[in-house]
What we know:
The complex is a heterodimer of chains A (110) and B (115). Chain A has strands at 4-6, 11-14, 19-25, 32-38, 44-49, 55-57, 60-65, 70-75, 84-91, 99-100, 104-109.
Amino acid sequence: RKEVEQDPGPFNVPEGATVAFNCTYSNSASQSFFWYRQDCRKEPKLLMSVYSSGNEDGRFTAQLNRASQYISLLIRDSKLSDSATYLCVVIPNTGNQFYFGTGTSLTVIP
Amino acid sequence: DAGVIQSPRHEVTEMGQEVTLRCKPISGHDYLFWYRQTMMRGLELLIYFNNNVPIDDSGMPEDRFSAKMPNASFSTLKIQPSEPRDSAVYFCASSLNSGSWDTQYFGPGTRLTVL
Lengths: 110, 115
């Protein structure tokens, strides 16, 4: 079983829509979680960390559900510029490995 | 800051040839990571260094792959001999210290095609 699994999409949503992605992880002892964003043919860049209590950054909300072993990313009021691939990252409690999901592709349509 | 620098940006080579990818991390960063990205497998961590010392190379696919970090400002990833299945985008990333595992700064990547 993969350490991290994401629905690859693609998600095609109209401008202004709300969209959510999930990412499941297999190691229940995982300790740190993040979302990265990767534009087409570019490098990944950190979008936001995921805290146990959930956290928000503008239109973006990240949540962690330890019981069901998944993290989520919610984007409200989607903009054309949100079109990208969103990668989740899980770090196990050993702290010496990074596991990236394969990414979820989002296209925001005018 | 110039960010993480990688070279070459694109490499096309023939099967059996040696390929060397280069990376200059952000100055002052203690950690350097090499990743490979393909459509099928996503982003895979190959190896990472802490203060120029390889810490975990369990992601290196096989003996044809080797990585070095002779000093704090330079690292190489070598494939010898290269095979078509090595075609991928190879990213180098660096981070400041172990307290900043989340903030990895990626270079622009090297797009490798092995014919």
